[in-house]
Amino acid sequence: MMLTQDVWEVISLSLKVTTSSVLLGMLMGIPFGAFLGLYSFPGKRLIIALIYTCMGLPPVLVGVIVYLLLSRYGPLGSLDLLFSAEAMIIAQVVLVTPILAGLTMAAVHGKERTYWETAKSLGATPLQMMLTIIREARGGIWSGVAAAFGRAISEVGAVMLVGGNIEHHTRVMTTAIILETRTGNFTAGLQLGLVLLAISFLFNSFLMVGMMNQMKSRRR
Amino acid sequence: MNRLKLKDLEVSYEGRTVLQVEQAIFERGRIYGIVGPSGAGKSTLLRVMNLLEKPTRGSMQLFGTDVELPSLTYRKGVPIQRKMAFVAQRPSMFQATVFDNVALGLRYRNLDKSTVQKRVEHALGLVELSPLARQRAQTLSGGEAQRIALARALACEPELLLLDEPTASLDPYNISIFERVIQQVNHQQHMTILMITHNLPQAKRLADACLFLHKGRLVELADTHTFFHHPASAELQDFVSGRMIC
Fold this sequence. Notes:
Chain A is mostly helical. Chain A has nine helices and no strands. Chain B is α/β, with parallel strands linked by helices. The termini of chain B are far apart. Chain A: Keywords: Membrane, Transmembrane, Transmembrane helix, Transport.
């Protein structure tokens, strides 16, 4: 496969949609997960059960719901976002935010027992406490980011529905692979798949370096 | 203004009372040893005083500040918390350098960089661990970590220092440093110190006064000499003479 202008365009849009959705998901999921990991309140168990359920949301279902919301007669139809990169980002944010919230909650909860009392007795305000524990739980949180990135970049059902796989507009690597396969061009499909794997490998290696350094410093 | 007073303190878990203190008064600038058998409520007392646990009822007067403990929210408790510091039996070190660990409480107080630097260096000097400032805290030995935990507490310059069996797992060398530092800050800064210990000779060595807890009740609070040589209660007599009490 030649890395033609079209292929670069597909790779670049995939990265744009994936990183945007993971960053937006981090902005919402990490503080929410940290809050759940740190504080007790009525209904917390129900929320946790819902988050764990949403961690396994079928992408096609998310695609259908976002499609209905953004369609002309849907409640957000006036935004005219259907079949755009923004619509794909919205769908992926719905998919990755529960993953980030759930894994952050688990990571923070694991550290909370150890560090809550120390930070509180040193005079931390509630916000300082949350930031301290998030910092201590960063290894687990980065694992959540890796899982979210993996889910977003390999996702096909939702982005196909709300993006429409439109050439030069909403075609990403996964939808391009489907198109190539449907037209019998298996080699191009496989090659795109390898590029996708390579990107995922590079991203995870980058995260792993940080996590390994942290583990080494703990072991020393 | 110059005393710490606990009044009508009661801690219950699921209807079972684990701590009951009608009244206890601690004078500023003294070292108090807290002794008693396991399960007497010693740690619970310190945790309640350090606002880590809410009692069922009771109040605390902390050097002029009245605190109604059961209704105190986290946010409202922060200024009170910042008047004291706590060192647990097993210190938890944050994933950072020794310097950053000691500086943590000061950064929570938003102190300027030069004050933080000065106070951290002073605290590390006190516990004789200045050369370890740039080392990662996770690499410390148990004794070093406990001394760093003490430095972290002292850097905050608390009016009240609460110590929960801080030397229980330390070797004699680290214990001697720990005890010297406690005496030094008590003399120089007039810091009030409450220290739980199972080591009665240590309580005799360090404390100006001692209190004895048994089955969740404050049985006796007296000057160290009176406490050990002329105990008023039969329970304390048995305890200091090494007999099993029940």
